[in-house]
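Entry 0007
Protein: Glycerophosphoryl diester phosphodiesterase
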Amino acid sequence: MQPAVVAHRGASAHRAEHTLAAYALALDQGADGLECDVRLSRDGHLVCVHDRTVDRTSNGRGVVSTLTLAELSELDYAGWHGGLPDNADELITTRNSHNEIGVLTLDELLGLVVERPGKKLFIETKHPVRYGALVEAKLVAMLHRFGLATPKSKEDSQVLMMSFSVRAVRRVRQHAPGLPTVELLHDFSPTTRDGALSSGADYTGPSIRMLRNDPGYVARAAAHGHPTYCWTVDKPEDVELCRRLGVRYVATNRPAATRETLAAG
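Output (structure tokens):
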């Protein structure tokens, strides 16, 4: 089975990460799923921002958790990216639209996903954060509103929650036991190297660097019942490695190129 292609922060090699335009492009490029990071604004909105601050990915400054949604919405989240559009018409039609530059809320992104049956959304909660467990509580509540918190089965679920925080994964498992979860890994620990997961998560989430150094890990994790979600896979040789190892999901900034590599293999 070929790995499913998950667009990491959207088609982020071609559009500014975490903008609606990046996710729309990823779907146009045939991505099987989308990946986002979520944080809470000061007034309790889940927004798709990777970093603790907006300094890198906007024309503003400040910590996400200290800014209201209105304040976050005043910023340009695309000017830093520097990538050129696919054609000159887009300079006029999309560059200054909200889809291209505006802050993206999880509510908006979920709205995009539910309109595309069969597409999955991988939602990473960031930790440590000012609001702690409130992030997962807000996430589960929102998924209930969209009818996505209690799927018929984990395989059928349109949403997967993931985090590097074992506690965060456990919280979601407690409050939404039917929702599939991914324990993300920066590196192996004595408890995870053999393929087991400390949190009882469904999927394991190693980096591509980890699989280059220890390709046997995918099989060991599978023996424990944990398919692999690997991040972030852009180079053709890494895509091919994941295919050979039997990785279930590959997160990539280049969904179109990754699909082409898999098709050629």
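Curator remark: The first strand starts at residue 4 and ends at 8. DSSP finds eleven helices and nine strands in the chain.
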